[in-house]
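User: Design a sequence. Structure:
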């Protein structure tokens, strides 16, 4: 089965969040299950630098304002179509979506409309010898692929729209419609029109044969006004086509037994070696050396991630006897609050602003628990990394966090199935109450190691999730035949 995946980022080439991890891991997981997935992504400078030999398999004399070409390349285990459009994607730092100052590029609508248009063309057979059986689009940046297919020559090809985070929708003014190259009838409520403008994600949700989200609980949450972000009405209309498939992680990259980013590798049979990683964390974050647990946070520092609650709870965390290590970047006010907390509690709190892939691995391998207090979390990956590394997750009971962590309540502890701690409601007080539970459990070495080992036994790989996607692809193909 040939599947075309369209995504704006893919690990290990370019990453801003979990979308890249999924886009990079899913093709590899599907390869052994009878599915050949090729991924279309933009030719950002970092992507173009990753391959030397270039032979265009598709060329555009003019694509949204400039010449463009599509190159078919293989990088590592990934088969890629790279959209080489320098006028759209050859831009200085700041990540794939914004300038060096972090501001969104004002023509992001044009950049990702171009990506989607090319996706629609490939779906229609524009590349000789290749025509996908299924097209799978990820998030708003790729969602218009399905609109181009619907109003083009690939309307009969089954499509999947995966929502990684409904909060990011790609909403633009009506003035952009005339430059999208879509027929006039597309600018309707049943097409791409959204509250008088153009909604990229909305268009994908409208056109998709099937909609997936990255956890079963999030699939239900987005049907409510609280989590639906204005799209709950449409999602409820498409409820029969909505599936929640929890993400997995690449267990070769995230493997404490062979992780080169750790000071010491280990497995569930001998957790004592984690102490060497803990010592490395104490040094890196300037933390006092003692036996109190180190709670870590690896996150974007935003309201969605609950980082304002964390900033307000720092004094309580320290008073409870724990130490705190924070790695992340985001809202300047939250960055400042967490830096101030580190200055206020020297030796007990350490804050590093930025993102460091290697350090994030070391934190999972050396910290005792990882805190994920998100207000909403479609799936979350850091808690899965925590399970894999024996870094006990402490999570808000929402979305994929609720689906992947078994709370260490009395019944779960007695049955020996607990893998972490959940808390609700999502508030600073509830967060602190959960951390007091963590402190009590950590004080009992037998209980704590049981929670760690049970978490490390959890299947957090892509195997089951990949099988769910294969089943979905086959279901859609059967409908096409019917």
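Assistant: Done.
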């Amino acid at each position: 089965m040939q599947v075309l995946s369209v995504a704006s980022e893919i690990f290990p080439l370019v990453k801003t969040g979990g979308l890249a991890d999924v886009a990079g891991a899913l093709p590899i997981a599907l390869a052994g299950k009878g599915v050949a997935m090729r991924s279309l992504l933009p030719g950002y400078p970092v992507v173009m630098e990753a391959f030397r030999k270039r032979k265009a398999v598709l060329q555009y004399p003019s694509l949204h304002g400039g010449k463009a070409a599509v190159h078919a390349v293989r990088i590592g285990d990934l088969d890629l179509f790279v959209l080489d459009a320098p006028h759209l994607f050859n831009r200085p730092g700041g990540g794939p979506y914004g300038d060096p100052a972090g501001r969104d590029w004002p023509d992001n609508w044009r950049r990702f409309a171009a990506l989607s248009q090319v996706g629609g063309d490939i779906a229609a057979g524009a590349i000789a010898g290749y025509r996908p059986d299924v097209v799978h689009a990820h998030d708003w940046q790729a969602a218009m692929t399905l609109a181009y297919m619907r109003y083009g020559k690939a309307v009969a090809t089954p499509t999947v729209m995966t929502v990684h985070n409904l909060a990011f929708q790609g909403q633009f003014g009506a003035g952009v419609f005339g430059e999208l190259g879509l027929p006039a009838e597309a600018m309707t409520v049943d097409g791409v029109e959204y509250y008088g403008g153009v909604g990229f994600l909305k268009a994908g949700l409208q056109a998709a044969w099937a909609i997936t989200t990255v956890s079963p609980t999030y699939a239900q949450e987005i049907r409510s006004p609280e989590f639906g972000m204005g799209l709950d009405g449409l999602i409820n209309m498409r409820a029969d086509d909505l599936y929640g498939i929890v993400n997995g992680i690449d267990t070769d990259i995230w493997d404490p037994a062979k992780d080169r980013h750790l000071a010491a590798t280990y497995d569930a049979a001998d957790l004592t070696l984690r102490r060497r990683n803990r010592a490395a964390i104490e040094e890196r974050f300037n933390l006092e050396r003692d036996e109190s647990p180190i709670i870590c946070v690896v996150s974007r520092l935003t309201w969605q991630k609950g980082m304002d609650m964390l900033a307000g709870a720092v004094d309580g965390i320290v008073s409870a006897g724990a130490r705190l290590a924070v790695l992340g970047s985001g809202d300047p006010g939250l960055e400042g609050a967490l830096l101030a907390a580190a200055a206020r509690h020297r030796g007990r709190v350490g804050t590093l602003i930025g993102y460091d892939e290697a350090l994030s691995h070391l934190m999972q391998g050396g910290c005792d628990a990882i805190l994920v207090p998100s207000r909403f979390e479609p799936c979350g990956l850091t808690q899965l990394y925590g399970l894999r590394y024996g870094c006990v997750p402490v999570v808000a009971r929402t979305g994929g966090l609720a689906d992947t962590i078994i709370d260490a309540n009395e019944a779960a502890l007695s049955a020996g199935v607990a893998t972490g701690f959940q808390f609700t409601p999502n508030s600073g007080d509830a967060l602190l109450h959960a951390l007091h539970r963590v402190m009590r459990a950590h004080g009992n070495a037998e209980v704590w190691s049981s929670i760690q080992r049970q978490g490390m036994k959890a299947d957090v790989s892509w195997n089951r999730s990949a099988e769910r996607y294969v089943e979905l692809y086959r279901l859609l193909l059967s409908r096409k035949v019917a």
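The chain has two domains: 2-248+463-481, 271-457. Residues 463-481 form the longest helix (19 residues).
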